[in-house]
Amino acid sequence: MPVVSTPSSLRPADSALDNEEALRIRNDFPILQQEVNGRPLVYLDSGATSQNPTCVMEAEQEFYEQRNSAVHRGAHSLAVAATDVFEDARQTVAGFINAGTDELVWTSNATEGINLVAYAFSNASLGRGGEAAERFRLGPADEIVVTEMEHHANLIPWQELAFRTGATLRFIPVDDDGGLRLDEAERIIGPRTRILAFTHASNVLGTINPVDQLTALAHRHGALVLLDACQSVPHMPVDVKALDVDFAVFSGHKMLGPTGIGALYGRRELLNALPPFLTGGSMITTVTMEKAEYLPAPQRFEAGTQRISQAMALATAVNYLRETGMERIHAWEAQLGERLVAGLEQIPGVRVLGPKAGVERIGLAAFDVEGVHSHDVGQFLDDKGIAVRVGHHCAQPLHRRLGLVSTTRASTYLYNTTDDVDAFLEAVAGVRPFFGVSS
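^ thats the sequence. predicted structure below, dont judge the formating
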């Protein structure tokens, strides 16, 4: 695998990330150097898609210039080189979350990873997989549990699984502030629960959920746990072994990587017992006209031509994050998130969702501006060169529970500064006066 370039002028790994270093890091991201509507771009939408450093873009280009070939299929030199970098990338990304190399399955994104698990459960419920897949089989006596704060990607696949198997889908509700009702979790998760799926960090609320507590509760009843780690793996140290989850998913495009690549982590013994979801070439050992036998994980879930250049680029992104320091990134974003929330709470007519200032959260904040639709807020901010997310953020049930249709969300990353946050807050303070609804 090619040498990965190091972030610009890194300080020692134990020093705190600060504005000065964030500005140097920003130099590694060409897209952040531009102006939007005649103003310097302030990018506060990394919760949806992060930007790419030059080294990530160069890694993907280098693959196509020097190594482009199919993996696991050819004996010629290019095919061997492509296979080597593909599997080296798997080792790098697996190590980033403390998973075994054979415990990481490449997917297009986290959504595909969740669907893979849900459809594998469905196939097991049809009798596929034999005795080894018995623990994945669902029927009318079984329950699937999610939470009321889930992204649609971690809700709809389970709705469909319940429909296909007759199982009951239940959810842990949130309180009026958006916090999980852990007392209700104790009541809902029980002997009939077969799988609990929940988000590590909410993409709307910024809440960091108690993974250890929820996982221990599910395991006490023999249930499996799937963790949506889309908003945690890019922003904080994540050790899937320490968290004791059975499955976890995340997406490359939220962690400095390219689009079209994500990963599913699964315990080795579980992945090898799960019936395949997608089938075809490269995931089999023996095929006759009547049946097929499948490779062990992870190849049993990687049918067809794979995401080779994207995997290589994601590994480069992981090295960039590791070299910067995940603890440092998490601490910096916590400061930015605190600044976001504290500032928004001081603006008349603005309601911030999720934990109040002073309570731990990831570096994002979703909010409602009284009397102004979120799309209008977003357009007002865009006119000032500030990029944010507007809408329901693929979490309609959560918004409905909190009495809202949509919100505006600002989300930070390692390349943001306090100046970015302050420019955003100054702009938000001008929204209601501009639309004539100030009190």
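The chain has a mean pLDDT of 94.
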